[in-house]
Each structure stands twice: as structure tokens, then as C-alpha cells.
Amino acid sequence: MKPNHTAAAKDRYVIIMAGGKGERFWPVSREKTPKQLITLLGNQSFLQQAVARVTPLVPMENILVITNATQAPEVRRQLPRLPKENVVAEPLGRDTCAAVTLGAALVGARSTTAVMAVLPADHVIPQEKPFQQVLADAFDVAARGQAILTIGIKPTEPATGYGYIRVGQPLPPPAGAKRYKTAFFRAEQFVEKPTHEKAVEYLNSGHYRWNAGMFLWSFVTITEGLQKHQPDMYAACQRWFQAATSASKLAKVLAREYPEIRKVSIDYALMEQAQNVVVADGAFEWDDLGSWTALARHLKPDAAGNCAVADFIHVDAARNIIFDARTRAHRTPIAVVGIHDAILVQTDDATLLAHRHQAQKIKELVKHLALDARFKKLM
């Protein structure tokens, strides 16, 4: 898709949330280089891919990345074309509602007629053009009225690790608008992560979408939503809006106020409370990689089901995930005999060996590393 930086597009903004911790993909991911800043698929980090996906729709100067002070230098290094002031560091993590509120203040300080998308930095979206079509249509809907939009992904399996959204009947296009290629629905209910039985029911019904954490709204709409449902956040947005004209002034205000901000997700704080939520049908391939086992979905297995990004040879090994992240000068062949259902990851300074059914416990392992002085350097 060619860049579409028309007059209307000049008022479009994208806020990319990139402040996660480096736990689930340890030892490749670390505190300074968490999942969104590492390269697991292709030759770009997830953050670089996230920016590349939206540049056909939004000028580079209208893309803002919200991260933290630890990761900000690496974010700027990976995105040299992004204006330095467009990388904004939260003093500490306060969940997604605070990040959204800060993003709204930053955008509003540039244009009070702006429409903005809030997107995670670490999603896998192999087919860019279908995603860009949905995003373009959703931008248009958000610019026309008072709707809060979220992109819901059509479930492909009864996943229990995602929240779900129940949708109603398709909505007609706004008056005076041509029919969109994307279907839009009124959001009827937000549902927490379900049991497997419920997930099967949701999948079979066709009335549910995965909650992917992708949102669009105008500056006016998001501030009105915060004013109605989260008045304290709205007040903070107003203060940050006033300070956002100066990077140094904003940094001082955030350092003073952020520790007192309530830690709450945007889903709970706003999306589940609002009555004007519209779901854009995310009819594109999507994945939120949550563990090493999820990565295997995007790697071609050998005849025994082994997925390897390494110089790998084996005898009687099956269904293993092998990832060699060592620098090229340090790489050596990885030979495996008789091992099944394992995760083996090597970096220059650490080795991980885990059963693939215990992949979620890697976060627990990282906590143990933090408590041992010998291993703090591996955080």
C-alpha cells in the first residue's frame, strides 16, 4: 500500500505502546530489550514491524512511541527516522489507561481535531495490506462521530489466553459514507479470559472476537470518555496536555504525578463502561506471541515436529523448539539426542532448557534470577 498522506491523513496519529517487560522470551528478551525490541521473526524487531505497518497511512512525524526510561534509548536507536521527541518515557508502569491518557495528551497538544490509533508494539501481523485496510476504515469511522473503536480479531481456535468481545449485528455505514470493506459491529459485552468450554462456545457461535488491545478514537471522544468514566484520569490528561508543549516540562510533571496515578487497564477503566464502543472486524492473520511455544506457530517444523532457528541436528528428537540467538562468531551446532517437547534457547551469556508445557513458568524463573546476585546481570 502506497503512503496516503493526504490532508485528512495529516490529522491521523498512531500511538504505539512499547513498555513491556522482558520476561516471557528470556533469555533473548531482557529488561532493556523486551519482546517488542528483539528480532524473533524476520529481520526486524516487533516494534520496527509495527511502525512499518502504519507508515503507509500515517506520516512518520505523527507516530508516537510510549515506552519507559530503561528502554527509550534502544527504541530511539531502532527507529532513527522517528523524531526524537516522539519517543516518550513513562516514569514507571501504570498499566494501559495511564499510557492511553498520556498518548491522548500528547496528540491533543498537536491537534485537537486529531484521530488516533493506539496499537501494541509486539503483535505479529503477517498480512499487512488487510490490516491497513481495516485501520484505514476504522480511522474514517472514528473521524466521523463519537464512536470508540476497537479492532476485534476473528477467533481461529478456542484460545483461553485472550479476552473476548461479544458483537451484535453489523452496523450500516455512516450517513454519506460509502460502504466500507471492513464490517463494523456494536460491542455488546467484554468477556474475561474464558474456560476452554466457553471458548469453544464463543468460537462456534460466530458472535465473539478476540480483544486484541487495538483502539481508535478522536481526541474529543477519548477525553469525553475519560471525563465521564475516569474523572481523575481526565484531570491528569488536562494537566499533561498543558505541559506537552515542552518535553522537559512534561517530564517533570510526569515524574511528580505518575507515582500517584491509579494502575488500571483501559479495558476496565473505559471500554467496559462506555456505551459507544464499535468493533471493527479484524479479518487478518494476527498473533500475540505470549511464549516460546507460541513462536513455533510461525516456524516451519521438520518431519519430527522440531522448530529450529539454529544450526540444528538431532537423533530421535521431536516437537522441540530450538533458538540460537548467539552472535554469529559464537554460534556452534546444536545437537540433540532423544529429547522431546523441550525449549532450548542459547544467547552469548545464558542457556534456557525447559519443557514446552512449562513455558509459562519462565516468568517465575526470571523472578528467581532477580533475587540472586549472581544472575542479576541476566535481567
What does the model show?
By secondary structure, this protein is α/β, with parallel strands linked by helices. It folds into two domains: 9-282, Spore Coat Polysaccharide Biosynthesis Protein SpsA, Chain A, CATH 3.90.550.10; 292-378, no CATH class. The protein is 30% helix and 22% strand. The chain has eleven helices and 15 strands. The chain has helices at 46-54, 72-78, 95-110, 128-144, 196-205, 219-229, 231-243, 247-257, 266-271, 292-295, 362-371, and strands at residues 12-17, 63-68, 87-90, 115-120, 148-153, 164-170, 184-191, 208-218, 277-282, 307-309, 312-315, 321-324, 334-337, 342-346, 351-355. The strands form three sheets. Strands 5-8-6-7-9 form a five-stranded mixed barrel. Helix 3 (95-110) crosses helix 7 (231-243), helix 6 (219-229) packs across helix 7 and helix 7 runs antiparallel to helix 8 (247-257). The chain is globular and about 65 Å long.
Question: Keywords, please?
Answer:
379 residues, alpha/beta, Spore Coat Polysaccharide Biosynthesis Protein SpsA, Chain A, 2 domains, 5-stranded mixed barrel, 4-stranded mixed sheet, 11 helices, 15 strands, 22% strand, globular
Number of domains: 2
Overall radius of gyration? 22 Å
Q: Major β-sheet, in short?
A: 5 strands, mixed, barrel
Q: Walk across the major sheet and give the strand order.
A: 5-8-6-7-9
CATH topology of the largest domain: Spore Coat Polysaccharide Biosynthesis Protein SpsA, Chain A
Order of helices and strands: EHEHEHEHEEEHEHHHHEHEEEEEEH
> By CATH's scheme, which homologous superfamily of the largest domain applies?
Spore Coat Polysaccharide Biosynthesis Protein SpsA, Chain A
